[in-house]
Amino acid sequence: MIQQNSFAKAKDLPDGTVVVAENQTAGRGRKGRKWVSTYKKGLYFTIVLKEKIPVNEMLPFSFIFPISVKNAVEDLLGIDNIRIKMA
To answer: Using H for helix, E for strand and C for coil, what is the string for 31-86?
Structure first.
């Protein structure tokens, strides 16, 4: 199984493309932490960003993206109990 990050890089996908997976077997979290997800028990995706953003400016994205997805899913499904796991 190809990891979604590797797939996104190998295919040279357009800016803004979202690559979705049912699970991750070689997930990478903040500070280089590794983790494995439970099959179909979460949302796992890679967002392709072509703009060259300095590493020191990327940290806010690790908070903005999950909160935005959480809010959108809760609004769409009419629920309010989604949790965010920060690796």
So the answer is: HHCEECCCCCCCCEEEECCCCCCCHHHCHHHHHHHHHHHHHHHHHHHCCCCCCCCC
CA pair distance 62, 68, nearest whole angstrom? 11
Residues 6+ apart with CB under 8 A from 72: none
Q: Which element (helix H / strand E) includes 27?
A: strand 27-28
Q: What does the alpha-carbon distance between residue 27 and residue 45 come to, in Å, rounded to a whole number?
A: 10
> How far is residue 86's CA from residue 76's CA, in Å, rounded to a whole number?
22
Does this model's pTM top 0.85?
Answer: no
Residue-wise pLDDT tens digits, 18-75: 888 888 777 766 677 777 788 888 888 888 888 888 888 888 888 898 899 999 999 9
